[in-house]
Amino acid sequence: MADDPCVFPLKCAVQNYVWGKLGNQSEVARLSQSGNPDFKLQQDVPYAELWMGTHPNGPSKIYLEGMEEKDLGEWISEHPERLGKETNDYFKGELPFLFKVLSVRTSLSIQAHPNKIHAELLNRENPNLYKDANHKPELAIALTPFQGLCGFHVIQDVAKYLQDIQEFRTVVGTENAIKLITASRAIDMASHRSVMKNAFEAMMMRDKETLQKEVRKWVSKVMDMEEQGEDISQYNGEVLLKLHREFPGDVGCFAVYFLNHITLQPGQAMFLDANLPHAYLSGDCMECMACSDNVVRAGLTVKYVDVQTLCKMLDYTGRQPQKAIFAAIQDTEDPYAAIFKPPVNDFAVIRIMLPGDVAQYQLRPLQNASICIVISGKAEGTTRSLANPLKLQPGSVFFMSANEIVTLKLEVGSMLLFRAHPNL
């Protein structure tokens, strides 16, 4: 083996948050059991996130025979040139992204992330809550059908819900409801955003007693409709009942009448830019994000909520649900690769789908370092810096230094892998 390998496997941390899928129902657990020899699966434990990167709360560790097992971040600090010149210069010797697999059983909080300038302000004013000064854009790519809330409905849809649902009207307030319904009949985006903000803010600030009473009244009606065989999809009934089961009486139950409900099919993605309200509801996905813990929450959570900050920062532009789907760009030089390239410098993600008739495939050199994970399929990976090939199978994670090539010799069958890298 070379003294200084530039490609090596990683052992990655698993986070057992309560919202994760249990036992072997979790893609996180399935991949960890296959790819990490230290992982011991327990059926009654939630496995929520697999972390690939240098985040101090779960750093990946180098896992290669004959090489000292150390944190990836520590190795990068000793070999900053391996990140590539652009990453090293732009991100000051740090890996700028955290790559994840998520397995979601119960809903995550209604939340948004600040932009860079706002993050710096929040961190300065309240460092105990907002612990860093970075933004936190996120990209979610579905591995299984993946449900979430993302962005505001077009105003006409919110107006119809206000007209049809007395309980929703009550928590928004009659005056706000009338103004929103009236504004929905004209084409004035600035007015639309203004009345949407006022209505949403009024709901989020509504006293807990009124809110819980109205949520329970409306949920009871929807349950009666369902029992009588009526169509509850017009009221987003299934999502409403799920949220109420998980967070009874929570303001997030009525948020379904403000926010678009999205179902991503495997391979589809959504990009969560700054100030975009969202919540993950269920399913498994790949996620890539900038290295930050800045989350502003306002519902569907037992964690600290900061309603005033959230309501001030949100983008209240109404969008059709399909606008939330973020398309990959097909690689013109590689028929098997497509890249999710969001408008941020911190990360991009390449999805590589190899059919069963491909015997050999080359992971091309990039000018910046990358992290790869195998989701399905098996292969041997050879590289100039390793004497022995990498044994790759589902759950295998490996780091590729800048300008390195890995040649995959595939076993029989197809293969799916994802590769995250700085978007420079």
TrEMBL record:
State which Enzyme Commission number(s) the record gives: 5.3.1.8
- Please provide an example of a Pfam family that matches this protein in its UniProt record: PMI_typeI_hel
Q: How is the cofactor bound?
A: Binds 1 zinc ion per subunit.
Q: Which residues form the Phosphomannose isomerase type I helical insertion domain?
A: 172-259
Pathway stated in the Swiss-Prot or TrEMBL entry: Nucleotide-sugar biosynthesis; GDP-alpha-D-mannose biosynthesis; alpha-D-mannose 1-phosphate from D-fructose 6-phosphate: step 1/2
Query: What does the record give as cofactor?
Result: Zn(2+)
The protein's superkingdom reads Eukaryota
Q: Name one GO biological process term.
A: carbohydrate metabolic process
Task: Name the UniProt key words of this record, in alphabetical order.
Answer: Isomerase, Metal-binding, Zinc
The catalytic site is made up of 297
Residues at which Zn(2+) binds: 111, 113, 138, 278
Keyword Cytoplasm in the entry? The reply is no
| MF term (GO), any | mannose-6-phosphate isomerase activity
UniProt GO cellular component terms: cytosol
Q: Which residues form the Phosphomannose isomerase type I catalytic domain?
A: 7-153
Reaction(s) catalyzed by this protein? D-mannose 6-phosphate = D-fructose 6-phosphate
The record's family statement is: Belongs to the mannose-6-phosphate isomerase type 1 family.
Q: What is this protein called?
A: mannose-6-phosphate isomerase
- Organism of this sequence: Octopus sinensis (East Asian common octopus)
